[in-house]
Specification:
3% strand; mainly alpha; heme binding; disordered N terminus; globular; Cyt_P450_sf; oxidoreductase activity, acting on paired donors, with incorporation or reduction of molecular oxygen, NAD(P)H as one donor, and incorporation of one atom of oxygen; single chain; iron ion binding
């Protein structure tokens, strides 16, 4: 074991020396380029290779995850340079600067992402899709998610899984909200994307996705045992399962009659992409399966991270504000009494009519 550790220490020293030599030899040309293109903001690139990545990741495990940014903003100003996740970057915490960048997205500023994220998502990633293709995919998926049929279906799915989840909480003395919300939000989202019901495949997908998502923020070192390597292996296993599902669905669509194909309402995002992504409206050639599979996998991220985090923050902030919690409870109980009296099922417009609840959701 000692020789293994010693070997990697030597490798680290050698790579660090190579990096230092390269930086030193190119320093004069860097000065010239800086004079031509403008002055870099203040800041620090940290250690060779890893930069300030360790500080950045460590801050995420504290009660103040924004401390990394706040510390450097106090030292260098609202715009500063740093080096995280294998990439030298400029960080802006200035709303005015951010507005200029976002308004010129794809024009003056070209989107770029850390190496670890590019490695994990691959060449068919949403991040690599630009121009007309990006707009078309966005329109197809967005149109499907906004359709009345989808809203009706997902409302029932959400209600079903929430009831099951609340029932399972009855006799449990301790609940970890983020973990619990991840379980049912992931199920709801995967149903919308793949029409995958609770099964061994869904359990497998959840386990592997948990492993995959951990690599989004990590050092860009792809060696056996590293976080990036484990995440890439998990991605391969996810890709294999999703590919099997997509291929089966594609075969089913090819066997169906043209008229039936046109009139049937899409069941999920896979259905939408298999049917409609093509060069021409009447062209039956769809994009490659790899493109569709990669997009489906990335669309699972909100069910694993974004939505559960928002729901956890909602619980936290409502617990800290009894007045808001009382108003929220009163508004929802009023709707529940109306539905009990009428005997009707909940629908999408019911939730949209809850004005205070909507305000709470939008703030989280």
């Amino acid at each position: 074991m000692e020789w293994f550790v010693g070997f990697w220490i030597l490798v680290g020293i050698f790579v660090g020396w190579c990096w230092y030599s390269r930086e030193k030899s190119s320093s004069s040309s860097d000065v010239t380029m800086e004079q031509k293109s403008g002055v870099l903001p203040k800041g620090s690139f940290g250690w060779p290779l890893i930069g300030e990545t360790l500080d950045f990741i460590a801050a995420g495990y504290t009660s103040q995850p924004v401390s990394f940014m706040e510390k450097r903003r106090s030292l260098y100003g609202k715009v500063f340079k740093t080096h995280i996740l294998g990439t030298p970057i400029i960080v802006s915490t200035d709303p005015a600067v951010n507005k200029v960048v976002l308004q010129n997205h794809g024009n003056i500023f070209i989107p770029a992402y850390p190496k670890s994220i590019r490695e994990i998502f691959g060449e068919y990633s949403i991040l690599q899709t630009n121009g007309t293709l990006q707009k078309k995919v966005h329109a197809l998926i967005g149109g499907f998610l906004r359709s009345p049929q989808f809203k009706t279906r997902i409302t029932k799915d959400i209600e079903h899984h929430v009831k099951l989840t609340l029932t399972s909480w009855k006799d449990r003395p301790l609940l970890l909200i983020q973990e619990e919300t991840q379980k049912f939000t992931f199920k709801v989202l995967v149903k919308a994307l793949l029409s995958l019901d609770p099964s061994d495949d869904l359990d497998f997908l959840k386990r592997e996705f948990d492993e995959f998502i951990k690599g989004l923020i990590c050092l860009p070192i792809k060696l056996p045992g590293t976080r990036l390597y484990k995440s890439l292996k998990a991605k391969e296993r996810i890709f294999k399962l999703v590919k099997k599902i997509v291929e089966q669905r594609k075969l089913g669509l090819e066997k169906s009659e043209d008229q039936e194909h046109q009139n049937t309402i899409p069941n999920d995002a896979v259905d939408v992409l298999l049917r409609d992504i093509s060069g021409e409206q009447n062209d039956k050639q769809s994009l490659s399966l790899d493109f569709i599979i990669s997009h489906i996998i990335e669309l699972m991220i909100p069910g694993e991270e974004t939505v559960p985090m928002s729901m956890t923050l909602a619980v936290k902030f409502l617990s800290d504000c009894p007045v808001a919690l009382e108003l929220l409870t009163e508004e929802n109980m009023k709707l529940k009494r109306q539905k009990t009296d009428s005997g009707d099922d909940y629908c999408w417009t019911d939730y949209m009519s809850l004005q205070f609840t909507q305000n709470v959701s939008n703030k989280c």
